[in-house]
Protein backbone atom coordinates (compact mmCIF):
# COMPACT_ATOMS: atom_id res chain seq x y z
CA UNK A 1 0.00 0.00 0.00
CA UNK A 2 1.24 3.49 -0.89
CA UNK A 3 1.66 6.06 1.90
CA UNK A 4 -1.47 8.12 2.50
CA UNK A 5 -1.67 11.89 2.12
CA UNK A 6 -3.67 12.17 5.35
CA UNK A 7 -1.77 13.38 8.45
CA UNK A 8 -0.53 10.46 10.58
CA UNK A 9 -2.57 11.61 13.59
CA UNK A 10 -5.76 11.55 11.52
CA UNK A 11 -5.07 7.99 10.40
CA UNK A 12 -4.25 6.92 13.95
CA UNK A 13 -7.53 8.42 15.19
CA UNK A 14 -9.43 6.50 12.50
CA UNK A 15 -7.62 3.29 13.42
CA UNK A 16 -8.50 3.80 17.09
CA UNK A 17 -12.17 4.47 16.29
CA UNK A 18 -12.55 1.41 14.05
CA UNK A 19 -10.72 -0.73 16.59
CA UNK A 20 -13.13 0.31 19.35
CA UNK A 21 -16.12 -0.58 17.17
CA UNK A 22 -14.55 -3.89 16.23
CA UNK A 23 -13.87 -4.85 19.85
CA UNK A 24 -17.54 -4.23 20.67
CA UNK A 25 -18.66 -6.15 17.60
CA UNK A 26 -16.63 -9.24 18.52
CA UNK A 27 -18.68 -9.59 21.71
CA UNK A 28 -21.95 -10.01 19.83
CA UNK A 29 -20.93 -12.34 16.98
CA UNK A 30 -23.08 -15.44 16.49
CA UNK A 31 -20.91 -17.35 14.00
CA UNK A 32 -17.30 -18.53 14.24
CA UNK A 33 -17.31 -17.51 17.89
CA UNK A 34 -14.04 -19.32 18.66
CA UNK A 35 -12.18 -17.58 15.85
CA UNK A 36 -13.47 -14.20 16.94
CA UNK A 37 -12.29 -14.86 20.50
CA UNK A 38 -8.78 -15.42 19.17
CA UNK A 39 -9.08 -12.26 17.10
CA UNK A 40 -10.29 -10.32 20.12
CA UNK A 41 -7.07 -11.23 21.93
CA UNK A 42 -5.07 -9.86 19.01
CA UNK A 43 -7.19 -6.71 18.91
CA UNK A 44 -6.67 -6.11 22.62
CA UNK A 45 -2.94 -6.45 22.09
CA UNK A 46 -3.18 -4.01 19.21
CA UNK A 47 -4.99 -1.52 21.43
CA UNK A 48 -2.12 -1.63 23.92
CA UNK A 49 0.45 -1.21 21.15
CA UNK A 50 -1.37 1.80 19.74
CA UNK A 51 -1.40 3.39 23.19
CA UNK A 52 2.37 2.92 23.41
CA UNK A 53 2.71 4.32 19.92
CA UNK A 54 0.78 7.48 20.72
CA UNK A 55 2.97 8.03 23.78
CA UNK A 56 6.14 8.04 21.67
CA UNK A 57 6.85 11.75 21.16
CA UNK A 58 8.13 11.54 17.58
CA UNK A 59 6.07 8.64 16.25
CA UNK A 60 4.36 10.70 13.55
CA UNK A 61 7.73 11.51 11.96
CA UNK A 62 8.59 7.89 11.28
CA UNK A 63 8.03 7.23 7.56
CA UNK A 64 7.34 3.54 8.09
CA UNK A 65 4.09 4.41 9.86
CA UNK A 66 2.92 6.41 6.86
CA UNK A 67 2.43 3.06 5.13
CA UNK A 68 1.76 0.79 8.09
CA UNK A 69 -1.15 2.72 9.61
CA UNK A 70 -3.25 2.99 6.41
CA UNK A 71 -2.70 -0.72 5.78
CA UNK A 72 -3.74 -1.49 9.36
CA UNK A 73 -6.84 0.68 8.96
CA UNK A 74 -7.83 -1.23 5.83
CA UNK A 75 -7.47 -4.56 7.65
CA UNK A 76 -9.55 -3.39 10.62
CA UNK A 77 -12.28 -2.09 8.32
CA UNK A 78 -12.36 -5.45 6.58
CA UNK A 79 -12.61 -7.27 9.90
CA UNK A 80 -15.41 -4.94 11.04
CA UNK A 81 -17.38 -5.74 7.89
CA UNK A 82 -16.84 -9.47 8.48
CA UNK A 83 -17.95 -9.17 12.10
CA UNK A 84 -21.22 -7.58 11.00
CA UNK A 85 -21.88 -10.62 8.81
CA UNK A 86 -21.55 -12.79 11.92
CA UNK A 87 -23.97 -10.75 14.01
CA UNK A 88 -26.82 -13.20 13.33
CA UNK A 89 -27.20 -16.93 12.78
CA UNK A 90 -28.48 -16.44 9.24
CA UNK A 91 -26.54 -17.93 6.36
CA UNK A 92 -23.37 -16.15 5.31
CA UNK A 93 -23.07 -14.58 1.85
CA UNK A 94 -20.99 -16.88 -0.31
CA UNK A 95 -21.12 -19.71 2.21
CA UNK A 96 -19.08 -20.69 5.25
CA UNK A 97 -15.96 -21.84 3.41
CA UNK A 98 -15.52 -18.57 1.56
CA UNK A 99 -16.20 -16.57 4.71
CA UNK A 100 -13.73 -18.65 6.69
CA UNK A 101 -11.08 -18.03 4.04
CA UNK A 102 -11.74 -14.27 4.11
CA UNK A 103 -11.55 -14.25 7.90
CA UNK A 104 -8.28 -16.20 7.93
CA UNK A 105 -6.71 -13.82 5.42
CA UNK A 106 -7.75 -10.76 7.42
CA UNK A 107 -6.56 -12.37 10.66
CA UNK A 108 -3.18 -13.14 9.09
CA UNK A 109 -2.87 -9.52 7.93
CA UNK A 110 -3.66 -8.34 11.45
CA UNK A 111 -0.93 -10.61 12.86
CA UNK A 112 1.57 -9.15 10.39
CA UNK A 113 0.63 -5.61 11.38
CA UNK A 114 0.97 -6.50 15.07
CA UNK A 115 4.41 -7.95 14.42
CA UNK A 116 5.56 -4.86 12.52
CA UNK A 117 4.17 -2.47 15.12
CA UNK A 118 5.77 -4.44 17.94
CA UNK A 119 9.08 -4.37 16.09
CA UNK A 120 8.88 -0.60 15.73
CA UNK A 121 8.09 -0.16 19.41
CA UNK A 122 10.84 -2.48 20.62
CA UNK A 123 13.51 -1.02 18.34
CA UNK A 124 13.32 2.39 20.01
CA UNK A 125 13.30 4.20 16.66
CA UNK A 126 9.99 5.91 17.45
CA UNK A 127 11.77 8.02 20.05
CA UNK A 128 13.97 9.58 17.38
CA UNK A 129 13.30 11.83 14.44
CA UNK A 130 13.51 9.74 11.26
CA UNK A 131 13.93 10.62 7.63
CA UNK A 132 13.24 8.34 4.69
CA UNK A 133 16.97 8.23 3.97
CA UNK A 134 19.03 6.97 6.89
CA UNK A 135 21.59 9.37 8.34
CA UNK A 136 24.86 7.54 8.89
CA UNK A 137 26.68 7.98 12.20
CA UNK A 138 29.57 10.42 11.84
CA UNK A 139 33.25 9.58 12.40
CA UNK A 140 33.08 10.72 16.01
CA UNK A 141 29.88 8.82 16.82
CA UNK A 142 29.88 6.45 19.76
CA UNK A 143 28.83 2.84 19.97
CA UNK A 144 25.31 3.73 21.11
CA UNK A 145 24.77 5.85 17.99
CA UNK A 146 25.87 2.97 15.80
CA UNK A 147 23.61 0.52 17.65
CA UNK A 148 20.63 2.82 17.17
CA UNK A 149 21.51 3.16 13.49
CA UNK A 150 21.61 -0.64 13.11
CA UNK A 151 18.27 -1.04 14.91
CA UNK A 152 16.69 1.61 12.70
CA UNK A 153 18.18 0.06 9.58
CA UNK A 154 16.89 -3.44 10.31
CA UNK A 155 13.49 -2.11 11.36
CA UNK A 156 13.15 -0.43 7.96
CA UNK A 157 14.39 -3.61 6.33
CA UNK A 158 11.73 -5.75 8.02
CA UNK A 159 8.75 -3.41 8.14
CA UNK A 160 9.21 -1.28 5.04
CA UNK A 161 8.27 -1.92 1.45
CA UNK A 162 10.64 -2.53 -1.44
CA UNK A 163 12.02 1.02 -1.53
CA UNK A 164 12.68 1.05 2.22
CA UNK A 165 14.40 -2.32 1.95
CA UNK A 166 16.57 -1.13 -0.91
CA UNK A 167 17.68 2.02 0.90
CA UNK A 168 18.26 0.13 4.15
CA UNK A 169 20.46 -2.40 2.36
CA UNK A 170 22.38 0.42 0.67
CA UNK A 171 23.06 1.88 4.11
CA UNK A 172 24.05 -1.51 5.50
CA UNK A 173 26.52 -2.11 2.68
CA UNK A 174 27.93 1.38 3.08
CA UNK A 175 28.68 0.91 6.75
CA UNK A 176 30.09 -2.60 6.23
CA UNK A 177 32.35 -1.45 3.40
CA UNK A 178 33.45 1.67 5.27
CA UNK A 179 34.26 -0.06 8.54
CA UNK A 180 34.70 -3.83 8.54
CA UNK A 181 34.95 -3.71 12.33
CA UNK A 182 31.24 -2.86 12.37
CA UNK A 183 30.42 -6.39 11.15
CA UNK A 184 30.38 -7.85 14.67
CA UNK A 185 28.00 -5.17 15.90
CA UNK A 186 25.75 -5.58 12.86
CA UNK A 187 25.64 -9.35 13.37
CA UNK A 188 24.93 -8.97 17.08
CA UNK A 189 22.41 -6.12 17.00
CA UNK A 190 20.75 -6.72 13.63
CA UNK A 191 18.33 -9.44 12.57
CA UNK A 192 20.71 -11.58 10.54
CA UNK A 193 18.06 -14.27 10.11
CA UNK A 194 15.83 -11.81 8.26
CA UNK A 195 18.76 -10.62 6.16
CA UNK A 196 19.40 -14.22 5.13
CA UNK A 197 15.73 -14.68 4.23
CA UNK A 198 16.17 -11.94 1.62
CA UNK A 199 18.49 -14.28 -0.28
CA UNK A 200 15.29 -15.95 -1.48
CA UNK A 201 13.82 -12.62 -2.67
CA UNK A 202 13.87 -13.85 -6.26
CA UNK A 203 11.14 -11.43 -7.38
CA UNK A 204 13.34 -8.47 -6.41
CA UNK A 205 16.78 -9.11 -7.97
CA UNK A 206 18.37 -5.89 -6.69
CA UNK A 207 17.35 -6.57 -3.09
CA UNK A 208 18.60 -10.13 -3.40
CA UNK A 209 21.93 -8.93 -4.79
CA UNK A 210 22.32 -6.37 -2.00
CA UNK A 211 21.47 -9.00 0.61
CA UNK A 212 24.01 -11.52 -0.70
CA UNK A 213 26.65 -8.78 -0.75
CA UNK A 214 25.95 -7.99 2.91
CA UNK A 215 25.92 -11.67 3.93
CA UNK A 216 29.18 -12.26 2.06
CA UNK A 217 30.89 -9.36 3.83
CA UNK A 218 29.60 -10.49 7.23
CA UNK A 219 30.72 -14.07 6.64
CA UNK A 220 34.22 -13.03 5.60
CA UNK A 221 34.76 -10.30 8.21
CA UNK A 222 35.42 -12.17 11.44
CA UNK A 223 34.64 -15.31 13.44
CA UNK A 224 31.70 -13.81 15.33
CA UNK A 225 29.74 -12.56 12.33
CA UNK A 226 30.63 -15.69 10.33
CA UNK A 227 29.29 -17.99 13.05
CA UNK A 228 26.06 -16.01 13.35
CA UNK A 229 25.52 -16.39 9.60
CA UNK A 230 26.02 -20.15 9.99
CA UNK A 231 23.81 -20.46 13.08
CA UNK A 232 21.00 -18.63 11.28
CA UNK A 233 21.03 -21.23 8.49
CA UNK A 234 22.84 -19.10 5.94
CA UNK A 235 24.90 -21.93 4.45
CA UNK A 236 21.92 -23.68 2.86
CA UNK A 237 20.73 -20.46 1.21
CA UNK A 238 24.23 -19.70 -0.04
CA UNK A 239 24.63 -23.15 -1.58
CA UNK A 240 21.34 -22.72 -3.44
CA UNK A 241 22.58 -19.43 -4.85
CA UNK A 242 25.90 -21.03 -5.81
CA UNK A 243 23.93 -23.68 -7.67
CA UNK A 244 21.30 -21.55 -9.42
CA UNK A 245 22.19 -17.86 -9.12
CA UNK A 246 23.64 -15.44 -11.64
CA UNK A 247 27.41 -15.17 -11.96
CA UNK A 248 27.79 -12.14 -9.61
CA UNK A 249 25.61 -13.83 -6.99
CA UNK A 250 27.54 -17.10 -7.30
CA UNK A 251 30.82 -15.29 -6.74
CA UNK A 252 29.61 -13.65 -3.54
CA UNK A 253 28.04 -16.90 -2.35
CA UNK A 254 31.30 -18.78 -2.94
CA UNK A 255 33.23 -16.20 -0.89
CA UNK A 256 30.81 -16.61 2.00
CA UNK A 257 30.76 -20.42 1.82
CA UNK A 258 34.55 -20.66 1.90
CA UNK A 259 34.62 -18.37 4.94
CA UNK A 260 31.87 -20.22 6.80
CA UNK A 261 33.40 -23.66 6.44
CA UNK A 262 36.82 -22.29 7.22
CA UNK A 263 35.69 -23.11 10.74
CA UNK A 264 36.26 -26.87 11.16
CA UNK A 265 33.16 -27.10 13.35
CA UNK A 266 31.00 -26.05 10.40
CA UNK A 267 32.41 -28.38 7.76
CA UNK A 268 29.95 -31.21 8.38
CA UNK A 269 27.09 -29.04 7.14
CA UNK A 270 28.35 -29.10 3.55
CA UNK A 271 27.32 -32.74 3.31
CA UNK A 272 24.10 -32.16 5.26
CA UNK A 273 23.01 -29.47 2.80
CA UNK A 274 24.01 -31.53 -0.24
CA UNK A 275 26.76 -29.08 -1.05
CA UNK A 276 29.51 -31.43 -2.24
CA UNK A 277 28.25 -31.71 -5.81
CA UNK A 278 27.42 -27.99 -5.87
CA UNK A 279 30.99 -27.03 -4.96
CA UNK A 280 32.48 -29.42 -7.51
CA UNK A 281 30.23 -28.06 -10.25
CA UNK A 282 31.24 -24.51 -9.29
CA UNK A 283 34.89 -25.53 -9.65
CA UNK A 284 34.13 -27.07 -13.02
CA UNK A 285 32.03 -24.34 -14.61
CA UNK A 286 32.22 -21.20 -12.49
CA UNK A 287 33.97 -17.91 -13.16
CA UNK A 288 37.55 -17.55 -11.95
CA UNK A 289 36.37 -15.90 -8.74
CA UNK A 290 33.79 -18.61 -8.12
CA UNK A 291 36.29 -21.37 -8.86
CA UNK A 292 38.88 -19.88 -6.53
CA UNK A 293 36.56 -19.75 -3.55
CA UNK A 294 34.74 -22.99 -4.34
CA UNK A 295 38.00 -24.94 -4.42
CA UNK A 296 38.99 -23.12 -1.24
CA UNK A 297 35.80 -24.40 0.36
CA UNK A 298 36.58 -27.94 -0.81
CA UNK A 299 40.08 -27.61 0.62
CA UNK A 300 38.55 -26.62 3.97
CA UNK A 301 36.55 -29.86 4.19
CA UNK A 302 38.86 -32.25 2.33
CA UNK A 303 40.15 -33.67 5.59
CA UNK A 304 36.68 -34.56 6.94
CA UNK A 305 36.33 -38.32 6.53
CA UNK A 306 32.71 -38.55 5.36
CA UNK A 307 33.01 -35.56 3.07
CA UNK A 308 36.30 -36.80 1.65
CA UNK A 309 34.65 -39.98 0.40
CA UNK A 310 31.70 -38.03 -0.98
CA UNK A 311 34.17 -35.83 -2.87
CA UNK A 312 35.78 -38.91 -4.38
CA UNK A 313 32.42 -40.37 -5.40
CA UNK A 314 31.46 -37.09 -7.09
CA UNK A 315 34.69 -37.06 -9.12
CA UNK A 316 36.49 -34.20 -7.42
CA UNK A 317 40.06 -35.26 -8.27
CA UNK A 318 40.06 -34.58 -12.04
CA UNK A 319 38.23 -31.30 -11.49
CA UNK A 320 40.82 -30.08 -9.00
CA UNK A 321 43.71 -31.24 -11.15
CA UNK A 322 42.22 -29.28 -14.04
CA UNK A 323 42.30 -26.16 -11.82
CA UNK A 324 45.95 -26.83 -11.00
CA UNK A 325 46.67 -26.77 -14.71
CA UNK A 326 44.41 -23.98 -15.91
CA UNK A 327 43.01 -22.03 -12.95
CA UNK A 328 44.00 -18.61 -11.67
CA UNK A 329 47.10 -18.49 -9.47
CA UNK A 330 44.94 -18.28 -6.32
CA UNK A 331 42.81 -21.21 -7.48
CA UNK A 332 45.93 -23.21 -8.38
CA UNK A 333 47.38 -22.79 -4.92
CA UNK A 334 44.18 -23.79 -3.16
CA UNK A 335 43.72 -26.73 -5.53
CA UNK A 336 47.26 -27.91 -4.80
CA UNK A 337 46.57 -27.66 -1.08
CA UNK A 338 43.46 -29.75 -1.59
CA UNK A 339 45.34 -32.41 -3.55
CA UNK A 340 47.98 -32.54 -0.81
CA UNK A 341 45.32 -33.08 1.86
CA UNK A 342 43.66 -35.84 -0.14
CA UNK A 343 46.97 -37.51 -1.01
CA UNK A 344 48.04 -37.58 2.62
CA UNK A 345 44.90 -39.49 3.58
CA UNK A 346 45.92 -42.77 1.97
CA UNK A 347 46.79 -44.82 -1.07
CA UNK A 348 43.31 -44.68 -2.58
CA UNK A 349 43.54 -40.96 -3.23
CA UNK A 350 47.21 -41.11 -4.23
CA UNK A 351 46.36 -43.68 -6.87
CA UNK A 352 43.51 -41.50 -8.13
CA UNK A 353 45.77 -38.46 -8.32
CA UNK A 354 48.48 -40.32 -10.24
CA UNK A 355 45.88 -41.88 -12.53
CA UNK A 356 44.53 -38.41 -13.39
CA UNK A 357 48.08 -37.10 -14.05
CA UNK A 358 47.96 -34.91 -10.99
CA UNK A 359 51.66 -35.33 -10.29
CA UNK A 360 52.58 -33.86 -13.66
CA UNK A 361 50.25 -30.95 -13.02
CA UNK A 362 51.93 -30.22 -9.70
CA UNK A 363 55.39 -30.39 -11.25
CA UNK A 364 54.35 -27.93 -13.95
CA UNK A 365 52.93 -25.66 -11.28
CA UNK A 366 56.24 -25.64 -9.40
CA UNK A 367 58.05 -24.74 -12.61
CA UNK A 368 55.60 -21.95 -13.42
CA UNK A 369 55.53 -20.59 -9.86
CA UNK A 370 59.06 -20.83 -8.44
CA UNK A 371 58.01 -19.59 -5.02
CA UNK A 372 55.31 -22.21 -4.75
CA UNK A 373 57.37 -24.72 -2.72
CA UNK A 374 57.86 -28.48 -2.67
CA UNK A 375 55.76 -29.58 0.30
CA UNK A 376 52.63 -30.35 -1.67
CA UNK A 377 54.50 -32.40 -4.26
CA UNK A 378 56.40 -34.33 -1.62
CA UNK A 379 53.19 -35.23 0.16
CA UNK A 380 51.63 -36.37 -3.09
CA UNK A 381 54.58 -38.55 -4.01
CA UNK A 382 54.94 -40.17 -0.61
TrEMBL record:
The family database entries (SUPFAM superfamilies) matched by this protein are listed as: ARM repeat
**What InterPro entries does the database record attribute to this sequence?**
ARM-like, ARM-type_fold, Armadillo, DUF7032
Q: What is this protein called?
A: ARM REPEAT SUPERFAMILY PROTEIN
Name the domain of life: Eukaryota
* Leader sequence residues: none
| Keyword terms | Repeat
Q: Which residues form a coiled coil?
A: none
DUF7032 domain location is 16-125
Amino acid sequence: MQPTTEPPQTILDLVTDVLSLLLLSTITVQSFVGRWQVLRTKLTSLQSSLTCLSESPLWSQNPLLHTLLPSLLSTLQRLLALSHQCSSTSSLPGGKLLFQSDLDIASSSLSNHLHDLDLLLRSGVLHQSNAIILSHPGPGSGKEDLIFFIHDLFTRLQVGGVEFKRKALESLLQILNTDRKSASLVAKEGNVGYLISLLDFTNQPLIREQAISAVSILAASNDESRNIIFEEGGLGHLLRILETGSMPLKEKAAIAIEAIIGDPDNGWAISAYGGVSVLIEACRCGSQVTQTHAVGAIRNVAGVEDIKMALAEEGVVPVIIHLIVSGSSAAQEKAADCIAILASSGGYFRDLIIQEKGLQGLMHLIQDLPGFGYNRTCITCT
